[in-house]
Design a protein that fits this description.
Elements lengths: L1 H12 L7 H5 L3 H11 L6 H33 L5 H5 L1 H9 L9 H18 L4 H17 L8 H19 L2 H5 L2 H14 L3 E3 L4 E4 L2 H21 L6 H8 L1 H21 L7 H21 L3
Antiparallel strand pairs: 1-2
Helix pairs in contact: 1-14, 3-9, 3-12, 4-7, 4-14, 7-9, 8-9, 11-12, 14-15
């Protein structure tokens, strides 16, 4: 999924059409990250969750947001924007509105996941039934999508919806045998929904791209269950290269946008337009080279 995200961002940030077959098939890639995080959640105190969350999520969020903002400042300078407000105050405004800074926007996921882990731990400690959590989070996410004025702060929608998938992942993590017993039915429904009612939501914006919000939620969960089953049932699918990428996914995640953003700034400096083939191939080749090297020498 991390490779799909990088592919998605390479094309999306560089101005190419991203609503293609790959994105049609992997429409559930962001719910998958929250779902998997929920699968590995363990009961703990709020204090421990906050401390661990800071080390694993907030620390890389802060470090690579600062680096992203430096890339953003270079971009402003290249574009001859010398307004000090954009250099000094814009990152704080972006954090309040979007939960991320320009220059490394995908890091919104780390901040949202940190909040989600804390909220879920609170719910677990106060013994709030998972059905209530699922219902409330799905409803809040849907309402944020339904009413356009509730698009900011942007994390209101993606935290609530992310918490839905996190909760679902944790609840299903101890029901593998029950789920596997119904896997043929689940796969059938998954394929039928792909054909009859495909739905997709941009989780960062919490905005329906096509289809229905609740169908997207249900279909995403079914797809994730199917993928997890196939990787357990047929381990040869999980080839060696993918294992290494999965192990180093955090580095790939926090760095890939920096590469794309730097390449964009360089081609703007050279006088190229918004969309150009050399820019895309440069970003792709540098990503292939830099990401594995960074994963080897940088630890987060």
């Amino acid at each position: 999924m991390i490779l799909h995200m990088i592919s998605f961002h390479l094309r999306g940030y560089l101005g190419y059409e991203v609503l293609d077959l790959e994105n049609f098939l992997f429409f559930f890639f962001m719910p998958w990250f929250f779902f998997k995080a929920g699968m590995f959640w363990k009961m703990d105190s709020i204090k421990n969750v906050v401390v661990k969350g800071y080390c694993r999520l907030l620390k890389p969020f802060i470090i690579f947001s600062i680096i992203g903002h430096l890339c953003f400042c270079i971009r402003l300078f290249v574009e001859r924007d010398y307004n000090w407000v954009h250099y000094v105050l814009s990152p704080f405004k972006a954090l309040l509105r979007y939960g991320c800074v320009a220059g490394n926007e995908p890091l919104w996921f780390l901040l949202s996941l940190f909040v989600i882990r804390v909220l879920y731990t609170l719910c677990a400690n106060y013994k709030i039934h998972f059905v209530i959590v699922l219902f409330v989070t799905a409803l809040v996410g849907f309402l944020c999508n339904l009413y356009a004025p509730i698009t900011e702060p942007r994390y209101l929608g993606n935290v609530s919806t992310g918490l839905f998938f996190f909760t679902m992942g944790n609840w299903l993590s101890n029901r593998t045998l029950e789920v596997d017993g119904k896997i043929q039915f689940i796969i059938a429904i998954t394929l039928i929904l792909y054909i009859v009612y495909p739905s997709a939501v941009d989780l960062f914006y919490n905005k329906v791209l096509y289809g229905n919000y609740f169908i997207w939620m249900i279909h995403s969960v079914l797809c994730i269950i199917t993928i997890n089953y196939l990787f357990r049932r047929y381990p040869m699918i999980d080839v060696v290269g993918l294992k290494y990428v999965g192990r180093d996914s955090m580095i790939y995640f926090v760095i890939h946008r920096l590469i794309i953003y730097s390449v964009q700034s360089f081609f703007i400096y050279l006088g190229y337009g918004e969309i150009n083939i050399p820019e895309f191939w440069t970003a792709l080749i540098l990503s292939i080279i830099i990401l594995p090297v960074a994963a080897k020498y940088i630890k987060v």
